[in-house]
Amino acid sequence: MTERAARRRTGPVLFLILCVLFLSACQTAEGMKAPEESPEVAVPSMAPLPAPEGIRIAVASDLHLDPDHATRSGELSGVSLNPELVEALLWDAKHQGAELILLTGDLVNGGKDYRHEALTERLRKAEAEGLPVCVVPGNHDLAPIGQREFAELYDEFGYAEAYSRDVSSLSYCVLWKDLMILMMDTAGYSAGAIDLPGAPQRSSNCAFFSEETLDWVEKLLKEAGENDRHVLCAGHFNLLPEISRQPENSGYYLENGDRFAALLREYGVPRYLSGHQHTRAVYQENGLTELLTEYLLAYPTGYSMLDLTDGEIRYTPRRVDVDAWAAETGETEPVLLNYARWQQEELHDYARSNVAYMCERNPLSETEVRQAEEFFYTVMDSYWRGDLHARRTELESMPGYEPFFRCAEGYAYGWWLKSLIQNASPLLRGFVLAWK
Q1: Burial code of 321-331, b = ≥16 C-beta within 10 A, e = fewer?
Q2: Cα–Cα distance between 62 and 57 in angstroms, integer?
């Protein structure tokens, strides 16, 4: 692999480093139960889920659909196969018993109308096949289109069915059986795209909740309490990671996010669903739990499944069964028909390229290189499977442990992997949370 290629593959890791720094927040909290250990079961799994006992809702984030990047020629990747992966996601959610799917922003890779139309065509097909969809925008979804055009494009995917809409943002509320679902527009897109008549004028592109939105939310939360409705809340930007509360981190800061979180706590809403960071994570603080759902187009092509009964919320990480979707829909592309195996091979290549890059400055012997590669791969695979916490001792005794950290000296990879290993949590395998 060329130096250029190695550096190109390094980019996603550097981005992910920033995302997972905060996984120390992933701790078993009061009112939460991690699932019993089951080492023989890989998580996230493609095995069929048991039939739902209550309401089953799928949650996906950061689809970044972009027909401009869709190609069957040249080097294939999750990005180049993005239309197929979105179709496979919708198929998998329906086949696993979801009665609704929530898409928490960054629906497309830049807010051009034809990209949104490519997505709405697929969402329309999913709804025709029995899977209703509710969407909310992320920071990549507006500009050049504005808020009004976004609401028109996605009218049939949440906005037309809304029980209540916030006049100052693209936030809305739907009632689903005995559940109130708040779909929150956290903005973060270009201020020039803010064109709703009731929206506040902004000079900054940072994510925010306006005073008007907070008032609207509080009225709905009061109503839900008076009618004994459970509330589920979703948005794109994060509430609990420390970086979301630091104004200098403009790509992550959520203005008034702390006030919104305080409202959720005050009215007994235990869960907030988000995306944005492109990684799976769980944060818990003062009785509020935040679940981040990962970027769809990267390993392991994951999403979240929620089972809601009157007493609890059960979270299960789910891996899209692309292979089964491809076989059932008559796909002929070999990569899609063997996508799980191809992804594992790509993860191995990912480890090889990054170790090679670091060895340019901190060389290892040929044997040590192979050992370091296997260590890097095993840590990443275990993290996404959700069993990293159970393999901590095994990983620290691997032959590649010492060579990897020697070659990673001076690179962010070193402290990043140590942080992953030390802070690994069983909650990434899934958990059960009481409503109150």
Answers
A1: bbbbbbeeeeb
A2: 17
Residues 6+ apart with CB under 8 A from 171: 136, 165, 182, 183, 184, 185, 213, 216, 217
Distance CA 77, CA 95 (A): 25
Integer Cα distance of 165 and 148 in angstroms: 13
Q: What is the mean pLDDT of residues 236-242?
A: 95
Mean pLDDT value of segment 385-394: 91
Dmax over CA atoms of the chain, in Å, equals 68
Q: What is the DSSP letter of 67?
A: G
- pTM of this prediction? 0.90
Q: Give the E-state strand segments of 37-187 in sequence order.
A: 55-60, 100-104, 133-136, 164-165, 172-176, 179-184
d(CA 23, CA 276): 15
pLDDT(364) > 60: yes
Q: Output the CA torsion 242→247→252→255 (10° steps).
A: 100
Given a contact cutoff of 8 angstroms between Cβ atoms, the answer to whether 273 and 419 are in contact is no
Under the banding of pLDDT at 50, 70 and 90, the label for residue 243 is confident
CA distance 365 to 363: 7
Question: What are the two backbone dihedrals, phi and then psi, of residue 365, each rounded to the nearest 5 degrees?
Answer: -70, 165
Strand-strand pairing, 172-176 and 179-184: antiparallel
Q: How far apart are CA 344 and CA 98, in angstroms?
A: 27
Place of tokens 């949370």: 433
Q: pLDDT tens digit string along 334-346?
A: 999 999 999 999 9
Token reading at 365: 């012997």
Report the DSSP pairing between strands 55-60 and 100-104: parallel
The full DSSP string for 234-300 is: EESS-SSSGGGG-TT-TTT-EETHHHHHHHHHHTT--EEEE-SSSS-EEEEETTEEEEEPPBTTSTT
- The number of C-alpha atoms within 13 Å of 285 and in the hemisphere containing its C-beta is 17
**Contact assessment for residue 131 and residue 100, using Cβ atoms and an 8 Å cutoff:** yes
Average pLDDT taken over every residue of the chain:
89
Do the beta carbons of residue 21 and residue 274 sit within 8 Å?
A: no
CA-nearest of 269, 275, 267, 273 to 296 is: 275
Residues in the chain, how many?
A: 436
